[in-house]
Specification:
Blueprint lengths: L5 E6 L1 H4 L9 H15 L4 E6 L2 H4 L3 H4 L4 H25 L4 E5 L8 E2 L2 H9 L3 E5 L9 H11 L4 E6 L4 E2 L11 E2 L1 E2 L1 H7 L6 H9 L4 E5 L5 H6 L6 E3 L1
Parallel strand pairs: 1-2, 1-6, 2-5, 3-4, 3-5, 6-10, 9-11
Antiparallel strand pairs: 7-8, 10-11
Helix pairs in contact: 2-5, 7-9, 8-9
């Protein structure tokens, strides 16, 4: 029995690159789609927000000399590419999906309309939210939080490369200590970089829990959806 009726899964763009420095690894995308489809088959309604770092990283050096607004818009378009790649992989597995973009591009994605997104979820479709919030200066973490609140998700499931939230970067410090549970305020006060401060504050103000878990451990998405103790809970 699933612990959540509706979840918002936040993925970094880097996940889709696999072991490469940037780009899209087709095998990684297929493996991720297979795992998400298993959870969807249990009846859990899933919304997804994917970052664009795997694509934007390839042009990051050029973007440093660009206007911030222009660079942010490029990043938003990168998330659309990733969303289409994930949607294609899910559709090949027989899972109905919809890509909904905050920037209108009718030839490739539906425009984001909140009530329509909720209806798709109710019909068992996976909805992939692309192009962030359409506004510069807002991260995909903030976009994920906004969409989670709008669709009334029970939780934000933040997929990372580590097992949860630590007191310091576990990839740099072997003695880093993992938290099993931590408050929003402690995350903000300690400057823990799990999500940006805006998204943490939005979750705190609306009492939306965040589950941070390791995506590289196969089956963690299912375990998280079933309510098993995986990673760290921020509440």
């Amino acid at each position: 029995m699933a612990a959540f009726k509706r979840i918002l899964l936040k993925l970094s763009g880097e996940v889709l690159a696999g072991g490469a420095p940037f780009g899209i690894d087709a095998e990684k995308v297929r493996a991720l789609a297979a795992e998400v489809s298993e959870v969807a088959a249990t009846g859990v309604q899933i919304g997804v927000v994917v970052g664009g770092g795997n694509i934007f990283r390839g042009v990051a050096a050029a973007a440093r000399s660009m206007d911030r607004v222009t660079a942010d818009h490029m990043g938003m378009l990168a998330t659309v590419i990733n969303s289409l790649a994930l949607s294609d992989a899910l559709e090949h597995m027989g899972i109905p999906t919809r890509v909904m973009s905050a920037i209108e591009m009718h030839q490739v994605a539906e425009p984001y309309i909140r009530r329509r997104a909720i209806r798709h979820l109710e019909k068992g479709r996976i909805v992939i939210f692309a192009a962030g919030t359409s506004n510069p200066y807002f991260s995909t973490d903030t976009a994920a939080t906004l969409r989670a609140l709008e669709i009334k998700a029970d939780v934000i499931a933040k997929a990372t490369r580590v097992n949860g939230v630590y007191n310091k970067d576990p990839l740099k410090f072997p003695d880093a200590v993992q938290y099993r549970e931590i408050t929003y305020l402690d995350v903000l006060q300690q400057g823990l970089g799990v999500m940006d401060a805006t998204s943490i504050a939005m979750c705190r103000d609306n009492k939306l829990p965040i589950l941070v878990f390791n995506l590289n451990t196969y089956g963690n998405i299912m375990r998280m959806a079933m309510g098993e103790t995986v990673g760290t809970v921020i509440r």
